[in-house]
Design goal:
The protein has 133 residues and is α+β, with helices and mostly antiparallel strands. 25% of the residues lie in helices and 43% in strands. The relative contact order is 0.18.
Length: 133
Amino acid sequence: MSAVREQLPEGRYGRSADERADRKLMITGAVLGVLFLGVMGWFGWHYVVDSKISAEVIKFDVVSEAEVQVHLEIRKDKDVEGVCTLRSRSEDGAEVARKDVRIADAATRVDRVFSIRTTARATSAELIGCTAR
């Protein structure tokens, strides 16, 4: 009784269909990976370079049951005006205040304290974001 071969002899008839499909899949994956990294780099570049105004909360102070004071440090181009949105939350996470503050100073770095009126006792204050006008 003789043994029956189920596969072709190696290297005799060229590449198999599976090897060709694997190669095409690897090339497609590499191209898509490079495109993804390029798009992410482009978004990151525009986020950093196109930001004409940015800010951060230095500290906040709950003054009373109905008021929070927020100290912001704003960095911007000299002649840029903008609006920053501040939000305050209560202990259970509910939003108790939201305020848009106008930034019109001619300086490139601005330190200001803003008062926010709240509907209930606040436990936090945060900067939502800033946009140039």
